[in-house]
Design a protein that fits this description.
With 420 residues, the protein is of the alpha+beta class. 56% of the residues lie in helices and 17% in strands. The protein folds into 2 domains: 6-217, no CATH class; 235-418, Glucose Permease (Domain IIA) (Distorted Sandwich).
Length: 420
Amino acid sequence: MSYRNPLKNIVLGAAIFSLLFFSWPTNAALTDDLQNEINQKQAQIQELEKQISQYKELVNNTKSQSNTLKNQITKMTAQIKKLETEIILTQTKISQTSLKISGLTSDIATQNIELEKQKNNISQILQQIYEYDQNSPIELILSNTNFSDFLSQAQYAANLQEGVQQKLTSIKNLKAQMEEQKAESEEQKAALENLKKDLRGKSLVLDNEKDEQQTLLTTSKNQEKQYQATLTVLEKQQKQIENEIFIAEQRLIMAINQNSITGGKGTFLWPFQGTMTQAYGCIVSSFARNSYPACNEGRGNGGFHNGIDIDLDTGDKVVAARDGTVSGIANMGRYAYGKWIAIKHDNGLTTLYAHLSVQSVSIGQNVKAGELIGYGGSTGYSTGSHLHFTVYATNTFKIEANRYGYPTPLGGPLNPLLYL
């Protein structure tokens, strides 16, 4: 029989015991520096959001002003300033999110090191306990010079086992914290990708707005008289196109196969969470009569609107109302719907999204409900930024060129509010 040196056991055990309660330092200075930078970015974000709100108010104020060249340029300038500020805001959010990811990555790496150290500590401690357990109580008594040493060693062993339990609990909590940080890191990375995608989209919107402003100045030659003359011709041509669409769609309404349509209220998401400014159907008002093809003849002063209008700002995100496949994309220039997207759904319905500034999908692409498909605008024949949303029976939907050669979506329209 061999007896271990009790003094050696105690010294070795004390060293191991200290591992149970030693707290490894973390890189707190780095975390503090990162948090300060993140806080600075947050302050910048809040200031930029205030500026955007001011530009938005300026844009809204111009909507009610008369349609003159000066007012139109003022509105477009304010819109461009707002978009430029939104781009800076998005860039700041990208920077802030990147900092958060860096902080989480650093924390996870530090805790990984700590976790490995804790595991090694536990391994050494368990080995010590194992060796201690190999000796019987009689052997332990004989290995100590007096009974007091035996009691001290026994107490030490008990404390060692209790410390192991505490350390195991600490490791468990550390792993849980790491899993939370990893999940948060993945969320931040997904947010970063969305922000980068939004930055690309907003940049395209800004470029388009600047092009529109330049076109306006070029065609009007910066003269009010020339602008009004162009506007008069455009209004006349627009009415011709609107009437052609109305006549074609009145025939297509008769061809709607209700048996091919499924679903009802709640079938579609709102493509943008905004205020509805124009309803569907024969609207009795002077604005509707002047803007839409005449309806309700002899029974009121109405104009037929084949969808609903939703108020938004140029550059706001527009999403798919339901899972589907993009069945049409076109640009009608300054006429009718301007830039539009059509999506075919599995319930016998097709949705139209019009007056967009940017289209972010392609024909044949499958999209999910709530997925970004484009950015709102005021393209086509529009008095201000808004989204025109139409629901067609798919069995009637088609795309034909109008008298000016622009691809025009046609179909039997249905009231979107029946499905939103």
